[in-house]
Amino acid sequence: MDIKRRNLLRFAGLGAAATAAGIAPTLTRVGAVEAAPVVRKVVVIGGGFGGSTVAKYLKLWGQAQVEVTHVSLASTYVSPILSNLVLNGQKSLASLTFNLQTAATKLGIRFVAGSAAIDRGARLVRVTHDNGTETLLDYDKVVLSPGIAFNTLPSMLAANRGIAGGKLPIPHAWQAGPQVGNLKAQIDRMPSSSGVFVLCIPKAPYRCPPGPYERACVVADILKRVKRGGRVVIFDANAPTNPADKYTAIQAEQHTFSTAFTGAYGSIVEYVPNATLLEVGTTGGQFGTKTARVRLGDGSVRTQTCNVLNVLPEHKAGAIAFAADLIPVGQRFVPVDQQSYASLADPDIHVIGDAHDSKQPKAGHVANSEAKVCADAIVREFGILPPRTAEEVPVTNSACYSPISSTTASWLTVGFRYDPVSRQMVRIDASLAEAEQPSGDNYKMMLAWANNLFADTFSV
Ligand SMILES: Cc1cc2nc3c(=O)[nH]c(=O)nc-3n(C[C@H](O)[C@H](O)[C@H](O)COP(=O)(O)OP(=O)(O)OC[C@H]3O[C@@H](n4cnc5c(N)ncnc54)[C@H](O)[C@@H]3O)c2cc1C
Predict the structure, then answer these.
(1) What is the DSSP letter of 383?
(2) Which CATH class is domain 151-315?
(3) Partner of 31 at 20 to 30 A CA spacing, among 99, 128, 197, 382?
(4) What does pTM read for this prediction?
């Protein structure tokens, strides 16, 4: 097996069991007496694809020498991956919900539910529980995978103010949970044949590059199959790379999505690139009438009335990363050393997943991969494993599957390798591949892929 392949397996976690089995706690000899091994404390914050994976692999690879405490807002996590299938009834939110406490018990790590904040000066993580009590956790390292937060338009904040996620007039439904159920209820209530669904896509980078176009396809399929007609208007803030072809604004799988928008859904989808959302409005609450006002590429302004307004606001790192002062003024994501994911502001706080800044997409599969690179770097820094050799550079992999209808799906995959010269994870061009066309076989593979990713991440 060549070195690249070996590295890919290690960092993809496929070699994890063998690696873990080879680790025993090292004992320090003091004279004739064996001293207890040094136990390092790592607090992992975030129960999603990055956080759950890194907690697991720190324990597997660190064994008794690493005490892992896993903190997340709640003891369950709902996966955004496959959540567009909740909209057409093929998945339930319950089927995408994973129990973090159960996983922690299985792995021999401590789980704490609550809202975390990092006090870097005191080297403490402060966890506030729902009942107002606090838990204080000291640490040698923190790994942060808090996902995303949003820069939301004032008019959207005003329309949604004081309303619970399940009833919001204008949901984003981009973090799985009640907003996804809300979006489904709004789609279910759309009138037959004449309903209008508006989807606003923010400028990249955002979570899951193909995800918004996937959502447009799933909704168009529902309108075509169930409602016997209607419209999906996509306002995409991204600009075409070729001004002569508007579909070059699509951020992933341009061939697949432009073919769907002009072919199977040609009578339903209107795709408008270079459309900056200026303002939203609503009358009549969750199931009432909504409006979106956008500025188009030619400078004109268009106002679109609709039954359902699904706005994905501009993304930024989860609030805890800003509060811990890990993000320079004017930036939205955490700069990191891309070999270890150590923050450039604090080497003892590592940041993975959607919240960090690199060329890797903001996606769950690659967050799982980054988590293994990060866990490996930390156990090596602790001296539990020897340092990486010059040839052992981090390699990660990303994969996104997209339902295109209720029976077909497409996929996209790409790998990244650490480049010591630019000090960045760079795309391995030869690894870039995507489905030739949506198919039923891809749909089956999508479910199998997701089950594998869920099993590895959440120990189910
Ligand atoms: C519709 C859709 C489809 C998608 N499809 C794919 C796909 O096919 N492939 C793919 O790879 N990705 C896909 N994604 C993207 C994927 O879901 C995200 O990229 C992934 O969830 C990011 O993982 P994360 O760990 O960075 O953040 P999250 O998964 O968002 O996890 C963040 C966690 O941190 C917790 N948290 C935040 N702040 C605090 C705090 N202060 N204290 C305690 N806990 C905190 C949250 O509660 C949460 O548990 C999709 C996303 C969507 C919306």
Answers:
(1) T
(2) alpha beta
(3) 382
(4) 0.93
For atom 30 of ligand 1, the residue with the nearest CA is: 147
CA-nearest of 454, 207, 447 to 333 is: 207
C-alpha–C-alpha distance, residues 76 and 52, integer Å: 11
CA of 364 to the centre of ligand 1 (A): 6
Is any ligand 1 atom within 6 A of the Cβ of residue 118? no
- In 3D, which of 183, 187, 154 has the Cα closest to residue 168? 183
**Does ligand 1 come within 6 angstroms of the Cβ of 208?**
yes
Q: How far apart are CA 256 and CA 438, in angstroms?
A: 7
Q: Residue 142 CA to chain centroid, in angstroms?
A: 19
Residue 223 Cα, ligand 1 centroid: separation in angstroms? 28
Ligand 1 test: best mutation among 56, 81, 253, 369, most atoms within 8 Å of CB?
A: 81
CATH code reported for the domain at 3-147+318-393 = 3.50.50.60
Distance separating alpha carbons of residues 297 and 248, to the nearest angstrom:
14
pLDDT one digit per residue (tens) for the chain, 460 residues: 333 333 333 434 333 333 333 333 333 344 445 666 799 999 999 999 999 999 999 999 999 999 999 999 999 999 999 999 999 999 999 999 999 999 999 999 999 999 999 999 999 999 999 999 999 999 999 999 999 999 999 999 999 999 999 999 999 999 999 999 999 999 999 999 999 999 999 999 999 999 999 999 999 999 999 999 999 999 999 999 999 999 999 999 999 999 999 999 999 999 999 999 999 999 999 999 999 999 999 999 999 999 999 999 999 999 999 999 999 999 999 999 999 999 999 999 999 999 999 999 999 999 999 999 999 999 999 999 999 999 999 999 999 999 999 999 999 999 999 999 999 999 999 999 999 999 999 999 999 999 999 999 999 9
Pocket of ligand 1, candidates 44, 145, 404, 443: which has the most ligand atoms within 8 Å of its Cβ, to mutate? 145
Residue having the nearest C-alpha atom to atom 49 of ligand 1: 47
Residue with tokens 């900056």: 276
Q: Give residue 274 CA to ligand 1 midpoint distance, Å.
A: 27
Question: Rounded to a whole number, what is the largest CA-CA distance in the chain?
Answer: 83
- Ligand 1 atom with the shortest distance to the CA of 354: 26
User: From the CB of 83, is ligand 1 less than 6 Å away?
Assistant: yes
Domain boundaries, the chain: 3-147+318-393, 151-315
Decide if 3-147+318-393 and 151-315 have a common fold.
yes
Say whether 184 sits in a helix, a strand or coil. Answer: helix
